[in-house]
Structures are given as C-alpha cells and as structure tokens.
Write a structure and sequence with these properties.
Blueprint: H1 4-33, H2 41-78, H3 88-93, H4 96-122, H5 131-158, H6 180-187, H7 190-213, H8 217-244, H9 261-281, H10 288-293, H11 295-325
Helix pairs in contact: 1-2, 1-5, 2-4, 4-5, 4-9, 7-8, 7-11, 8-9, 8-11, 9-11
Length: about 325
C-alpha cells in the first residue's frame, strides 16, 4: 500500500515541517521585536532574518501548494489497495481524518497564495508598514500546517486494507449515508447555472471596472473567491457528465483518471489561481494611497486583474473543450 507517490508525499511533508519550523521561529522574532526606527543590533539581525524569509517563505509556500495536488494524486494511487475504493473519494472518506486533511490542504493552497500577494503589496515601498502583521500571519499558517501534518499521519494510521470503504458512486446515490449527495442532487437545476452565469458577468464587469477605473476592488475579489467553489460545483454537476458520457457517474476525483485528465488538473489549478489573484486584488486597498499615486501598485493591480480574467477565460475554454469533444447530450 506504500505507493511511490505516498512515499514522496511523506518526504515532502517532513521537509515542509523543517521549513515551516525555521520560518515560524524567525517570523516570531520579527513579529515581536520589529522596529523600523531602531538602529540596534537586534534590529539589524531582524532585517537580515526578514531578507532570509523573503527567500524561504515563497519556496515553502509554493511547496505547500504543490503538496495539495500531490496528496490527491497519492490518494488516487492508494485506492486499488482499499476494498471498495475506485478513486481518491473512498480514500478520503473512509475516515473523518481524510475530509479534515483535504480541507487543510485546500486552505494551505489558498492562504499562502494570498499571503504572497500581501507580501508583494507590502514591499511596494521601503517602509513596509505591515511587517509585524504579515509575519504574525506566518505563525498562523505554520500552526495550520502542523495541524495538517498531525491529521495526515492520523489518516495514514487509520488506513486498513481490510476495511470496506465507500465507492465514489455514493457521491450521488440517494441511499448514501453522506449528506453531500442530497445537497448536490438538489443543486443540479437550471437555477444553479443561471446563478453561475450571473456570477461570471459580475466577475467580468467588476474586473473591467478595476482595470479602467481602479475601483470596485472588493466586488471583484469577492466574485473571484466565490468562483473557486462555483467552478468546482459546475465541474462536478455538469462537466463530469460530458467527460464520462454518463448521467450518474459524476465523481470529481475520477475525472483525474480519464485520458484527458490533464484538462481537469488544469481546471482545478486555474480555479485556485482565480481565487488567489482575484482575491489578492482587495489587499491593495490596504495601500490605497499607492494605488492612486504609485505606478508600481497600479501596475501590480493590473497584472493581478488580467491574470484572473485570463484564467477565467481559460477555465471556460477548457470546459467547452470537454463538452464539444463528448458524444453525451445533457437531458
């Protein structure tokens, strides 16, 4: 049952534990003692530690984001060893730890991305007014990571090949013991598609407003964050039917086993990118004076907005590719 991806995931988790521990130690000192006006020896050491973290934290956070996708892939490779599992769905749901682990991984994929945006906004000027606050947030992210590690090993400890687990068919079964299937079946209605279309229109409308008027940043960020679960829902409810050419089999994890699985990996990656880049636009409101007067802040806002809008277009194109390549006709 110890598949190579799972062993790699364990190695990555151990490496990340060391990296987050080192980052948390330095971040704690900066959060407690940082004083830009001071010329003391301690402040000089803290500034050196800050420059060190500017190299360490992006690498650590990007590796944490990568571990989310590696976790899903590793769970998929474990499924043949668990009785009843067809994909990662059974691997994550055979114990409550799996759902908690997946939730932690999603947070560790989105929150570090937003922190990196905040860090770039803070470094637009030499004063860096949010140094103490952003490094205090690093401590919270480190705490979340170590919670994730604890849940990960509890999840592995509960794994037993002799245990009968749920098939992904339970995801939409009316007799399932899970609450999620009933909710998903309830959401599969025209109103859901109309709301998704309205969300897309609001997203693009507010995005264009940000590009040309530098306002409505909150609305654009909120629509971008809402698009993350909305895209996942649309993929699960509708796009999966075209991928499998089956109105019953709609498992989002089984999509990653298809011949065109790369399309769905890209869809999941782009949906996260929309949430991070679009959600990060509102962080610029913390430096509104730079947004009005500073060329660097204006350019950074434009890049984030354009990246978000382009990612949304790519998501729609990929969805269209799946639909038009399918022989399935939605009822």
């Amino acid at each position: 049952m110890w598949t190579p991806p799972l062993l790699v995931l364990e190695l990555v988790e151990c490496c990340l534990a060391g990296l987050w521990l080192a980052a948390a130690f330095s971040a704690l000192r900066i959060a407690l003692f940082w004083d830009r006006q001071s010329g003391s020896e301690r402040q000089v050491c803290l500034e050196k530690s800050g420059e060190f973290l500017q190299v360490l934290l992006p690498f650590t956070m990007l590796l944490s984001i990568s571990s989310f996708f590696l976790t899903i892939y590793a769970a998929d490779t474990i499924s043949p060893f668990l009785t009843g599992a067809m994909c990662a769905f059974g691997v994550f749901t055979f114990t409550g730890y799996g759902i908690v682990l997946l939730s932690c991984k999603i947070l560790l994929a989105l929150l570090p991305g937003l922190w990196l945006v905040w860090n770039m906004v803070d470094r637009l000027t030499p004063e860096q007014p949010f140094v103490r606050k952003k490094y205090f947030c690093v401590l919270l992210l480190a705490l979340l990571f170590f919670t994730d590690v604890a849940v990960f090993f509890l999840w592995l400890g509960e794994m037993n090949p002799d245990t009968l687990v749920s098939c992904c068919g339970d995801l939409f079964s009316s007799t399932s013991t899970f609450a999620l299937p009933e909710l998903l079946n309830t959401l599969e209605r025209p109103l859901t598609l109309r709301l998704f279309l309205v969300l897309l229109l609001c997203h693009y409308g507010s995005g264009l407003w940000v590009l040309f008027r530098q306002s409505k940043l909150i609305f654009f960020s909120l629509s971008s964050l809402l698009l993350f679960p909305a895209i996942l829902l649309i993929i699960t409810l509708y796009i999966s039917q075209y991928a499998f050419e089956n109105p019953v089999h709609r498992c989002p994890f089984c999509l990653l086993q298809e011949s065109d699985a790369v399309i769905f990996w890209l869809l999941y990656l782009l949906s996260g990118l929309i949430a991070v880049c679009g959600g990060g636009v509102s962080i610029l409101l913390l430096r509104r004076e730079l947004l009005v007067k500073g060329r660097a802040a204006y350019t950074f806002c434009q890049r984030l907005t354009i990246s978000t809008l382009v990612s949304t277009i790519l998501v729609l194109i990929l969805m269209g590719i799946v639909i038009f390549r399918s022989n399935y006709i939605y009822d």
